[in-house]
Amino acid sequence: MATGVLQRVSGGLGRAKSGALSAGQLAVWGRGVATSSCRNREDSWFKSLFVRKVDPRKDAHSNLLTKNEESNLYKIQFHNVKPELFCHLIEDVLPSIHADKYYPCELVGTWNTWYGEQDQAVHLWRYRGGYPALTEVMNKLRQNKEFTAYRKERGKMLLSRRNQLLLEFSFWNEPVPRTGPNVYELRSYQLRPGTMIEWGNYWARAVRYRQQNREAVGGFFSQIGNLYMVHHLWAYKDLQSREDTRNAVWQQEGWHEVVYYTVPLIQYMDSRIMIPTKASPLQ
């Protein structure tokens, strides 16, 4: 709009200098330019009233992406520790909670980080029954003297810790115990807010490309903690098997398209190679 006005002003002034326009004609022409400019601004403001409205979502993405017939809640814990005695401590206590039917929870896996953030223990718990099961377990553990003593000893070895509450994607495998030996990779993705549904749509197809060697263990997204965080858990016989498996998937038609469209959804990503402890059901 500004360019058109300048062109008309320039043309009008040029004609005025050459004598083509009288003073009166130039005044009339100037009022016309001003009126046209004002009308364009009014049209722009009027059109802004009819900008397309975003359709309201009918359900939370957590309900759209999870297995609705189940209500499993997961908790992942990251403990940065003084490593000397920590493994022995958890091997005495965590399996007993896992095996006790009094607690509606299961230890899915427990690992030490091999490559990635060093001196870190990672634990993954499943609560069948969702938030009520989590609350029940927490209340019962407060009365467990063995667990209270474990927490006291654990505090002496901790440098820092954090956790997240997660739901599992409906299209991923549910983690089940495995025999070993295996190495595990936890790939964590911080997504851009508002992109979780799009991520799920692409990975519902992508995970099918990653089943040939049974490497897909579980896929989760955060509900409490760092939000819009996704975790993919993979199992490999060793690091060379990991390399071969990841290279082979590029030969499958459609994989490159998934990568092309999902990479822009990521703000940052992280990878840990982990070794299961003796207490881990995932070996």
TrEMBL record:
Compartmental location: Mitochondrion matrix
BP GO annotations: mitophagy
GO cellular component, one term: mitochondrial matrix
Domain of life according to the entry: Eukaryota
Annotated NIPSNAP domain residues: 184-281
Pfam name, any one: NIPSNAP
Family the UniProt entry places it in: Belongs to the NipSnap family.
Protein name: Nipsnap homolog 2
Annotated gene: NIPSNAP2
